[in-house]
Specification:
The chain is of the alpha+beta class. It has 2 domains: 58 residues; 142 residues. The chain contains 6 helices and 8 strands. The strands form 2 sheets. The protein has a 6-stranded antiparallel β-sheet, with helices on one face. Helix 4 packs across helix 5 and helix 5 packs antiparallel against helix 6.
């Protein structure tokens, strides 16, 4: 019925407008046409009547059903009772746990302390202990750098939660190739033992990766990698960029 009176509402409006434009249509059986004021009053009363009837005949909606629109699907449980009424039960909203950034299982400071302890244990005088890192803030990741010589440096990447994300040793051009290469092997070996202490093959893997990169320095595609546990070890080399040795998480997110 509400639809019927809704249709009448629009018909009354249209008829009223037409009669206001052409009052002569109200003249019936030689009677004079209605004045425009009466047409306006009758039209208003007719539309008002139809609006009242729409309100009276409109189907009632369960208030709980209306509340459903205020919640998302994961916030409510929707069911029906025996009378067919919709029942809305709010659900406990659990905070979503964000996935932590991939990391090497320690902070930069923990790595530094273990590195210096390992260096002291091996009694290596040619490489000085690492001083406290000066971490530079970035938009997404933070970084630090350590310069061992003019031809050899370490760049570290740090997640915003403070965990160590990646280590990259970079060896540039130098006249003392053998000496610098020996330092790179020592640094990469110590770092690998710290990151993967329970992996006996890590030292051989590091040496093989570095050898592959050095031998293929003339090649256009000269990158090599191997996964050990949850860690990815990789090398790449070219005459333009030098020799890189990196340690990063196997899963990158």
């Amino acid at each position: 019925m509400a639809n019927f009176f809704g249709l009448l509402f629009f018909i009354f409006i249209i008829v009223t407008i037409i009669l206001l434009v052409k009052p002569s249509l109200t003249a019936i059986k030689n009677k004079s046409p209605l004045p425009r004021l009466k047409i306006l009053v009758y039209g208003f009363l007719a539309t008002l009547f139809s609006m009242v009837m729409i309100g009276l005949t409109a189907p009632k909606v369960d208030p709980k059903k209306l509340e459903l629109e205020q919640f998302s699907d994961d916030q409510v449980k929707v069911s029906q009772d025996k009378d067919g009424k919709i029942v809305v039960t709010p659900q406990e909203v659990k905070n979503k746990v964000s996935t932590p950034d991939s990391n090497l299982g320690m902070t930069p400071e923990e790595f530094r302390k273990r590195f210096n302890a390992k260096l002291d244990q091996l009694d290596i005088d040619s490489i000085r202990p690492i001083a406290e890192f000066k971490i530079k803030q970035g938009n997404f990741k933070d970084t630090f750098q350590v310069k061992f010589s003019n031809a050899l440096s370490l760049t570290g990447t740090v997640n915003k939660d403070g965990s160590l994300r990646e280590l990259i040793y970079i060896m540039g051009g130098t006249q003392d190739f053998e000496g610098t290469m020996m330092e790179l092997l020592i640094l990469s070996g110590i770092s690998s033992q710290i990151i993967s202490p329970n992996e006996p093959k890590v030292n051989n893997t590091v040496i093989e990766l570095i050898n592959k990169a050095v031998r293929g320095i003339e090649k256009e595609d000269n990158s090599h990698s191997e996964d050990i546990g949850d860690v990815k070890y990789y090398t790449l080399a070219s005459k333009a960029t030098g020799l890189w040795f990196g340690i990063s998480p196997k899963k990158d997110n």
